[in-house]
Amino acid sequence: MMFRSLRFALCIVLLCATVGGGLGCAIVRSPEATYYVLRAPQQQASIAQPKGALTPVHLRRVMLPAYLERNALVTGQANSVRVTVPQYHAWAEPLDYGIRRVLFEAISPALTSPVQLVLDENQNPEYWLSVEVLAFEGALNGTARLQARYRVEHSNLGVLHTEEINLQEPAGASYDSLVQAQSSLVCQLGARISSTLNTLRYK
User: What is the 3-state secondary structure (H, E, C) of 66-81?
Assistant: First the structure.
C-alpha cells in the first residue's frame, strides 16, 4: 500500500514537471514592482539675481510623518482616516530626499533676491529653511494633496517667517498621473517658498 502511494505521488510530480501550468502546478510569480520618482515638470530659466555676494540659505532635510517613512506609495482620499499602501508601487528613493531635491530645483531658479539656496549639511548656518510635510497622498481618479509647513530661520533672530499651506490637484487615473500631480504640488510649494525668500531682508 505504501509503495502504491509513493508511486502515485511520483507520477503527480512528473506530470507537473511535464505539463507545467496546465494543471495548476506552475510556480506563481509575483508581479514586478514599479518604482517612481518625483520630478519638476519643467526646468525653469533662472531669473537674473543682483550682482555681488549671495547669502546662503540652507535647505535642511525634509521632515515626514511616520506613515510616509516607507518605500511604498501611500494613497488615500483627502481628509480620510484610511490610507492604502499598494504592494507593487514604490518610490525609487527615500521620499524625503525626493521632495527636497524637487524643492531645490523649483526654488533656485526663481530667486531674485541676493540669496542662494544650498543643500550642504552645515550644522550651524546663519540662515536655514525647514520644511515639514504633514500629509502627502492621493487617490486614483480623485485628488492628490500636499499639506506642509515651512520656516525660514536666522541663527540669532529666530523665526523670520513661517507658513502652513494645503495644496490639491487632480490625481488622474493611474499611478503615473498621481506621481506627476504630486510632483506638481511640490513645485507649487517651492514657488510659495521662493516668493517668501525673495521678500525677506538679509544682512
Answer: HHHCCCECCECCCCCC
Q: How many CB atoms lie within 10 A of CB 71?
A: 14
Q: What are phi and psi of 21, to 5 degrees?
A: -85, 0
Strands 158-172 and 55-59: unpaired
Concatenated DSSP letters of the chain: -HHHHHHHHHHHHHHHHHHGGGGT-SPPPPPPPEEE----SS-PPPPPPPSSPPEEEEEPPPB--GGG-SSB--B--TT-S--B--TTEEESS-HHHHHHHHHHHHHGGG--SSEEEE----SS-SEEEEEEEEEEEE-TTEEEEEEEEEEEEETTTEEEEEEEEEEEEEEESSHHHHHHHHHHHHHHHHHHHHHHHHHS---
pLDDT digits (tens, 9 = 90+) for 170-192: 999 999 999 999 999 999 999 99
What is the C-alpha separation between 199 and 188, in angstroms, rounded? 17
- Tell whether pTM > 0.85: no
pLDDT tens for each residue of 73-104:
999 877 778 889 998 999 999 999 999 999 99
